[in-house]
From TrEMBL:
This is UNC-50-like protein. Residues 22-44 have a biased composition (Low complexity). It comes from Melampsora larici-populina (strain 98AG31 / pathotype 3-4-7) (Poplar leaf rust fungus). GO terms for cellular component: Golgi membrane. It comes from the Eukaryota. It is found in: Membrane. Residues 1-12 have a biased composition (Polar residues). One of its GO terms (biological process) is vesicle-mediated transport. Keywords: Membrane, Transmembrane, Transmembrane helix.
């Protein structure tokens, strides 16, 4: 999504597609009116969406195209995803009107995320595993990039797309864009902050347990909330607040974990179990 800084309010008053307060008969998520439905169907055909995704991936794998990408805009988006995520989604509808796509047409933010994860792999390998093996670093980088970010993102975004947007033949790429946005604050919490706090959060006392478990709660809550904002920005969806329900589950598990289960200690041991010997 080629989003630009703006002072327009999040409610997008100029959008002629009001939300309805009544649930649709077809389920929890629905679209409004024949005009809205026709616009969504005609502008978001699967064939066009996959073609746009193919072109964007072509830019991603060809470094010669990188100088044409807007890394400054991507950096702006990443900053506001942490401090004011609503601003990132303010211009989604206007982006659709000007570029005829809801999804990003510039993979700069993907390249930056891959670079950040690869750098984090170097730091975890050297500072946590105390290893300077290129093989260990490469293995961890592949794990973080392809499993943690891309594979999990494809699973989550495809699941949400199939439940919410598939009947509108909406762009699957937009769902992955939402995942990318949601993943960045999680990355800062679990891949950077947790690395810095690893000597503390893995200790066997309650205060350290509380710090580590709170870190996971913040990361998971931010991921869910930014995902909700991404779908709430689509003017033809209703009851998108149901996407916030996992936060209730996370809070419940968090309270239970404070009775003595150290998330950081157990998850880090499991995550690096196959790499400690490298």
């Amino acid at each position: 999504m080629g989003l630009l800084p703006t002072s327009v309010s999040h409610s997008n008053p100029a959008i002629p597609l009001p939300r309805s307060n009544s649930p649709a008969a077809g389920g929890s998520y629905a679209h409004h009116g024949h005009a809205t439905s026709s616009a969504a169907l005609s502008s978001g055909r699967s064939k066009g969406g996959f073609e746009k995704m193919r072109k964007m991936l072509g830019k991603l794998v060809r470094p010669s195209r990188w100088p044409t990408m807007d890394f400054e805009l991507a950096a702006w988006q990443m900053t506001y995803l942490c401090v004011a995520p609503r601003r990132v989604y303010r211009n989604v509808y206007y982006h659709k009107q000007t570029k005829n796509t809801w999804a990003r047409d510039d993979p700069a933010i993907l390249i930056m995320m891959i670079g950040f994860l690869s750098s984090a792999a170097v730091l975890w390998t050297s500072l946590y595993l105390h290893s300077f093996s290129p093989i260990a670093w490469a293995g961890l980088a592949l794990k973080m990039v392809f499993r943690d970010f891309i594979a999990s993102g494809l699973i989550i975004s495809t699941l949400l797309w199939s439940v919410i947007l598939a009947r509108l033949t909406f762009e699957l790429q937009y769902s992955f864009d939402v995942h990318t946005n949601s993943f960045f604050p999680l990355f800062l919490n679990l891949y950077l902050a947790q690395l810095i706090l690893a000597p503390v959060v893995t200790r066997n006392n309650w205060v350290c347990l509380w710090v580590g478990n709170s870190l996971y709660l913040v990361a998971a809550t931010q991921y869910v909330y930014i995902t909700y904002l991404g779908y709430n920005a689509l003017p033809f969806l209703i009851r998108s607040e149901l996407l916030l329900f996992p936060i209730v589950l996370f809070l419940t598990l968090y309270v239970v974990s404070l009775l003595g289960f150290n998330l950081s200690k157990h998850l880090l041991e499991a995550y690096f179990s196959g790499l400690n010997s490298s």
